[in-house]
Write a structure and sequence with these properties.
With about 300 residues, the chain is an alpha/beta fold. The protein is about 45% helix and about 10% strand.
């Protein structure tokens, strides 16, 4: 079970813990992944500026994976939606496909359409399976209440991403529950985290983040759990700014799902980058049911 891994552009600069925790969890579970030389940005930042440039960026990666006879796996919600949309457009619109292939010919590449796009959560749920994951959990959480934040791009547009049942991501919920954590329902769960407008209207961005944090906290959550780089940056780094600027007396720490799962699997917290989280970095460990020796994995 090998995949070509599509990494998120922001993680090497702003969220190295998502790269390291993903790699550590994949290795612990025996899931093979390949960093294909030449992979570029999925094109997401260009989507509303130049549609053809956006499709070309995704198509190039899909072709490189196809050339290696691999499907693409990503842990970034934006990359996931972008690659799936490009795949859809190329399969449905012959004129777009023809134009893209003309450009790809310069690199001896051709879009054939055989490459599938998978989210890490889908791979864990469908390929590994809940029962197999449960068997590998050596340090389950006890008393930990989690508000699961799905993220916009595994939900919308639902006809395109088809991640789970329309308007939900119960797959994510069930994966969190196998760690021993308790899921708490919260009213603002499906709302945007505010990341898309950060840098454009920071006050609005903080308003959206603040609303979600307050609602999750009032629902009794100890942590928010995310599977999106932009959402984690918003709930971690931007929340820290929010607490400072707006005088909030209480915050709510956020944790990447790969960190949550990794801890329950017994993976060393340093390999998961837990100490890099800006809010309550190591507090999550107090909810672990055991202090058994962790799996020692090097951070690449």
């Amino acid at each position: 079970m090998d995949f070509a891994i599509q990494r998120c552009c922001v993680t090497p600069m702003y969220l190295k813990s998502y790269d390291s925790s993903t790699d550590a969890v994949l290795r612990a579970l025996g899931i093979g992944f390949v960093d294909i030389k030449g992979f570029n940005c999925c094109g997401y930042p260009l989507k509303d500026i130049d549609l053809k440039a956006f499709v070309l960026a995704s198509a190039r990666n899909l072709c490189l994976a196809e050339k290696s006879d691999l499907n693409v796996m990503t842990f970034c919600n934006c990359c996931y939606e972008s690659l799936k949309e490009a795949n859809h457009l190329l399969r449905e619109d012959e004129s777009i496909k023809r134009g893209i292939n003309e450009k790809l010919m310069k690199e001896d590449l051709k879009y054939g359409g055989s490459t599938k796009v998978r989210h890490l959560l889908e791979v864990l749920y469908n390929d590994v399976g809940l029962e197999a994951l449960k068997e590998k959990v050596t340090m389950p959480f006890k008393g930990l209440k989690i508000a699961v934040h799905y993220g916009c791009h595994i939900l919308r547009p639902r006809q395109l991403v088809q991640f789970d049942d329309p308007g939900t991501a119960k797959v994510f919920d069930q994966l969190v529950q196998i760690t021993g954590a308790e899921i708490v329902p919260w009213e603002a769960q499906l709302d945007c985290c505010g990341a898309p407008v950060w840098g454009i209207d920071d006050d609005l961005s903080m308003d959206l983040t603040q609303k979600k944090i307050r609602d999750a906290r009032q629902s009794g959550a100890d942590f928010i759990c995310v599977a999106c780089a932009y959402c984690q940056l918003q709930f971690d780094r931007v929340q820290r700014m929010l607490l400072s600027k707006r005088g909030e007396d209480k915050g709510l720490p956020s944790i990447l799902f790969t960190q949550l799962l990794g801890l329950s699997l017994g993976v060393d917290s340093k390999a998961l980058g837990i100490d890099q989280n800006e809010l309550d970095a190591m507090g999550i460990k107090h909810f672990l049911s055991s202090e058994e020796s962790p799996i020692q994995l090097s951070v690449v």
